[in-house]
Specification:
By secondary structure, the chain is of the alpha/beta class. It has 2 domains: 112 residues, no CATH class; 215 residues, Alpha-Beta Complex (Spore Coat Polysaccharide Biosynthesis Protein SpsA, Chain A). 50% of the residues lie in helices and 12% in strands. It has a 7-stranded mixed sheet with strand order 3-2-1-4-8-6-9, sandwiched between helices. A 3-stranded mixed sheet has the order 5-10-7. Helix 1 packs across helix 6, helix 2 runs parallel beside helix 3 and helix 9 packs across helix 12.
Length: 377
Amino acid sequence: MPPVPVPQIDGLAILLFIFIFLFILLNLYYWCIFFRLAWSKEKPVKPGQKGVSVVICARNEYFHLKENLSFILEQDYPDFEVIVVNHASDDDSAFLLAHMAEQYPNLKIVEIRENLNFFTGKKFPLSIGIKSAKKEIVLLTDADCRPWGKNWISEMQKQCSSPVDIVLGYGSYEHKPGFLNKLIRFDTAQVAIQYLSFALAGMPYMGVGRNMGYRKSLFYENQGFISHYAIDSGDDDLFINRVANKTNTRVCLMPESFTVSEPKTNFSYWIRQKKRHLSTGQFYKFKHKLMLGTFTVSQWLFVLLFSLLLIMDYNILPVLSLFFVRMVIQMFVFKRCMSRLKEKKIWLFVPLFELIFLCINTSVLVSNLISKPVKWK
């Protein structure tokens, strides 16, 4: 009896199968996760106005405080205080703050005259600021940030009704001419699309210190930053990664709840900032690293397999069709998401910037393995 021939497995056919699988996987992210931000609606909230403490850490931030602090002190809200922790500044910040305190009775200044290193980065002064807060709801922002309008505090605190302990907002960057500005704004919007969408899907994993809030009692119950005090960054995302869950976290997407910051104007300074921010990802919970890593690796493999199948001239029409369909879906969903975040026009750069950031973020992650990221001031 002659032997039964064994069918040969075509290597390119396997690559095409993987390419199709990645197409489906990426679309699951677009339609099941990012879709939630694109078409989200504000949840109804209970009426009421609770006392709020705004905490800002500043070190040598004279010019930013002079430019932005009044926008926070003049919020249209009946019961709030603003705590500025002046952390070992050697500029004229102390004189400016003392002068502003004469004009604004709701401004409270905490002076840390020596750079005590019990905590690295911003965690020590931020802990002091939170512990100095008299109100239960604490909103966090930076010295180089200002709210979009006078209802920032009002909109953010609305979301903090029981059982909500954490409110995540969006921190944008100013629109300025130049390619670097577009890169920064796209990167910021892309990161926000991810963490806000996952939070809306019941899987919160981070927030940004430019615009978020939580209950002071939550900070105490979880012993503040003790679990990650030795890590330079992470006063915002690592704390949220540890304490946030689907029931205690809410997203605020009202435009007046947004903040705006001055972007970097030097590429190397911006890369240093990204190195610091990306350095904390390795300390996330495993499930969060898995869901974020799967998305990024899928993006990389999809682009690489598309290029390889194109070079090999294998099933060109279906390969091109899948690539084009995925690009259209990606741009459509991102356009909707960026519209919610009031980021205009940069969605047009999605295909180009996706490739650029796959390269930049990979390079930064590799660099972080070799050299230690720069500390907060």
